[in-house]
Design brief:
The structure is a homotetramer. Chain A is of the alpha+beta class and about 375 residues long. Chain A is about 65% helix and about 10% strand.
Chain lengths: ~375, ~375, ~375, ~375
């Protein structure tokens, strides 16, 4: 059944719930604003509800203006006002606020002026995770990507000049000039293929087939370069994200630096908001967790146990039959380090001292669970 | 010739033959149901054979209802009825059964009500292998994928606003409103390129070319991220699938944990149904097998030899001239661990004790084959 | 300049020149046959030169028939006639010969019967290198690829049912029936986008945008899976291709098995036909060569030196300033093992005994070159 | 905010500023020439400003002729005139100069003759970095790529023959002949999808759907192969680029060859022009730098410190809290080796002698900064 297959996803859904309320409001305002702007360009809607749409847009603008002002103010208090304004984030905020009023002041008709509100969509990029990562991939692979672009340009120009010669007599309106021929070449090389301009002669079609195949080859190279770059960047980013947290977990501090490096490559950092279930009893488990910051509660009988920074949990399933034995949830926002089963096995195999420590703790816990259950059954309560 | 090249595929075709009869019936019912539903929307067919199509659809529905009822019953007996209903598999089953009767009860005309039968296609996902894997890739790479989507949205909005300004006077019906301009942008950014809405001004075409190239860049990033994520997930999944089987093979138990981890990464788990040929004499062989569960029969002269759990076979070809020396087939459904030639060499090089054990067994077998042949030729039969 | 950049390609162009004459003839016949077949479907050409085209096609057919007969004969002499006929190669050969005569015998008009000649194109696959590799990728990744296909089918069916409901009143001819709606969904999901069927309502366009984005996501997964599978298969294939050659080079035989495994992963096997330049003096060199089979000639002054199996060359450039010091070409068809600079450095660093051996040989050669030059200048000739 | 995320990009933007003035002029001439050529094909512009456009084109031609002559002259002085002319770079230069005059001399009308000026676009490839890299990927993966092309051809031919049979009666003009059917197959297999030729029968559409899915499968394989090939080539290229620089840094020379090889794989070579900021105080830093050639200035109080070849900088942020403590900029064009945080940690863990050396230097610098500050505060100036 799908159930078993998907249950492990459950352990990873936590990041989706970490959406702050303020951010939600911003995205709501953004969505409403963009929809109002789009609606304003529809003549029917403008006639029917133009006033209300304008009002809505002004409200959104005011919201963004207030947000921007607060941002600048906060930066000013830290003495970084200029730095903030010149940063990408600051520029995005200014772009969201000023163009529309300036355009209106210049006498642009409102329906055109409000089109500048489409710049609001840049707000999405402001706090979006991973943008820097994508940027770095493009920068690190700049040389080969530039080569692919050059290849693209060369094929583009030669193909359109050749097509112009071949088809200009047959279709003067479509291939009569080089610029229109270039348009065909771009549409074909990117495999978009609108079909508004299509070769009709046999030679033109042969040339067209060649251009399409070149397009796919170029595209494949492009994707291959980005895939390679992204794989390297992903590994690097994961290490950096994990490293500073790993070094704070006491459990790892007894290890030599080489082992810590190895572990850092294996762990994945996950931020979990408060009161979120991390592990559910009875589910199939394929990872264990280290607590880098925060606290979790394990609901063992009769009283739940709390684990704080530096502790680990979820190892019982990995050492036993893969079935989770207890519910675990966070009591406050926590940073967890996830260790997958495959890496857990490798780690245990390479570092016997770690294996012994985890094993000992697991034995202690199993004994503890056993004793607690017995006490619970006999009505007594353990002192610790 | 192609023959030699493809012969090694033969060793891997086994998984395709493991299709249970019950599952086959379900897929047949599914195919018939979907085809009947599609046929019902054709006016001619509806007029000619509407009654029969309706009957066919009701039969399929009843089949799925019975299947669902049995599924719930089975879960109820294990005391997991609710858990089953709330799982993805349970929801899919309910979606397959209820929407059509409910729609009919609400008075929807039958040809519309039966369209809900398209939900039956979800049944395909129920037992499809690897769905969890794909899901995990999306979840683990959620951050960069979200960034790419945001990039997509930003380009989409800015491009359509710009295009609206550039082309609205030239083509009021196509780019006159922002929503229609957005439609063009989506069609172009995904390189679908219907061609129903196409820029005609020089500036519009330049902008269009830019959007197409952005589309390809975004798409390349998207593919790169998924490729990276999938590679990591594949490695992890293979380890987990193999690990619990490896630890049961006695042959590996003498190894230290570090070596077991190394081997687990090299092995690939394959389920083979009963009476299936695994190795064919005279073919080129590039892997050896360990039996994790089940039994195989090696047809050496004069009496076949049976190998059970923990045994291995196929190593003679790897140690010799790559030609298989005997047919091997399963006698019951078996779980085999496949070790490719490249990994076999690496393993032999790193673990001399393993190399010696496999070598000794291979020598023993070669001697055995030799002795058996001689006995066979001289009419005698070996006692063992 | 581009010159320097491309010069190293030169070392790799050899495989392209290894095209046997017989194979060239076959491909020529194939090309002529396919073109004649295509020409026969053009009414004008058929009227003008039908007889000649028919004759040409019969000639091609006879050629393939002779080839097939020879192939069967050769197999029969080895007692493998049936095995040959049932192999992929044999089936392809039969498909090339029989369908056309059978169709003609059945009374099909010649222009339709000759269309079966398009099966001749399968001949391309017969000796094409790497087909087995691609096949293995699909087989090994069968599970996740099947999941992607299932995902594709689910989106396809649900999208077309939804689109049918949304657009059937607006465009009865395009979305009036589910099959025609399915056609739209396929064209859109694969991002082909003919544009013959396009949603026109706002809701339909929103749905269409969703389908396009799903299409790209599915496609990205598909590509990611194939990329991952291919990377694994490539590494494996390279090891297998190289291994049996490496073990025959005496130079490596002194190494322990672990080192041989390491080296095997680094080397790349290249087949070079006779009288082909492998190294050109003055070019930038970034690899060295080991001779697994065959012989090369190094044209040092005054008399060229011949190197046979087990020898190596090209190491002077790697140890020195990267400029090739002499021309090297094969005297007969040879199998070379290429070691790239990066791997050369790693190898030298890890295996000091190898480093010493290569270094000693390089010193000896440099001294030899020096001595020969001096002797040449003084008119004397060295005894060796 | 985005600011923090993007700030580290800053360290990588240097390569973009390294554009020589001469090269800029060439690209300017190239752009003007190509635009003039395109303008010449527009009847309106030709009528209005044909003379001026012709003049512009002649100027560009003369510029390229002079460039070519200078190139040949420079090569001749090195005695490599023929080698230069026969190199790719030389051929490109000749193609840029001769075709137009020859065409004009042959009596071709000027607007057609000038189309040969589109060959100028090849000039882009002349000095473009990474072209050799892309070429090598295609050459090294030639076998599997050829297989994909063969697969493409087979599907193409069989699909178009089948489509011809299925649709020739329905649409004689579109599918009546095999060549036109081939055109449809190419457009569909590459997922270009013009829509000028579209199947209309049910069987034709089913076949078309199959062809589209085959197209995506083929394309995925193609991309996968290129991605794999590029990853290997990237790693190799990086090693070669870095190796000769690493061996010149005195700091690494005390290490054993195995460690040097390891480090070489970790470092990335970056060329920085003179007077360029490498590190900005207060930014988040995630890498350190080794100076392979050139000189940098660290602006510590009261007098800046200059670091020359073999020195390193930026390690304080990695050892401390990741915040850069000083501005660093180059005083002349320099070659730097970048070591990312992840690799820095790994290196420190594996090579304790390196860790100690870097740590000692960091301590010395911190003490130095402290002492300098104190002296500055007390008005004294340190003698060194």
């Amino acid at each position: 059944m799908l159930k078993g297959a998907f249950s492990s996803l459950d352990d990873y859904s936590a990041p989706f719930r970490r959406f702050g309320a303020l951010r939600l409001v911003r995205y709501l305002v953004l969505a409403i604003g963009l929809m109002a702007m789009a609606a304003l360009t529809e003549p029917n809607l403008r006639a029917a509800a133009g006033l209300w749409l304008n009002l809505l847009l002004w409200c959104c603008l005011v919201y963004f203006a207030v947000e921007t002002a607060m941002g600048i103010n906060a930066a000013r208090r830290q003495g970084k006002a200029w730095q903030h304004l010149l940063s990408l984030s600051g520029i995005v905020e200014l772009f969201a606020v000023f163009p529309v009023p300036i355009a209106l002041a210049c006498g642009t008709p409102p329906e055109t002026a409000w089109l500048f509100a489409s710049l609001w969509v840049l707000k999405l990029a402001q706090n979006s995770p991973g943008f820097a990562q994508l940027g770095r991939v493009f920068v690190l692979e700049a040389k080969p990507l530039a080569s692919v672009l050059v290849l693209f340009l060369i094929v583009l120009f030669l193909a359109s000049a050749a097509m112009h010669v071949v088809e200009r007599n047959e279709q003067p309106s479509a291939f009569g000039t080089l610029p229109s021929s270039l348009w065909w070449a771009v549409v074909t090389l990117t495999t978009t293929g609108y079909g508004d301009v299509v070769p009709r002669t046999a030679l033109g079609r042969l040339l067209g087939a060649g251009v399409m195949i070149c397009g796919i080859a170029t595209f494949g190279l492009w994707t291959g370069i980005l895939a390679t770059g992204f794989a390297a960047e992903r590994r690097r980013r994961n290490f950096i994200e994990t490293w500073d947290v790993v070094s704070k977990v006491p459990f790892f501090q007894s290890l030599d630096p080489s082992a810590i490096t190895e572990i850092t490559h294996m762990l994945r950092r996950v931020e979990v908001p408060e009161r979120t279930a991390v592990i559910r009893r009875g589910r199939v488990g394929d990872c264990m967790y280290f607590i880098a910051a925060g606290e979790v509660e394990v609901d063992v009988m009769p009283t739940p146990v709390r684990l704080g920074e530096g502790a680990f949990f979820g190892e019982l399933a990995l050492l036993g039959d893969m079935i989770r034995t207890a519910n675990v949830s966070t009591t406050k926002a926590s940073t967890l380090l996830v260790l997958d089963l495959a890496d857990f096995r490798t780690l245990m195999a390479h570092h016997s001292e770690l294996a012994r420590a985890i094993d000992a703790e697991a034995q202690r816990r199993l004994g503890d669970i056993q004793r607690r259950r017995e006490l619970h059954l006999h009505g007594g309560i353990a002192p610790a």
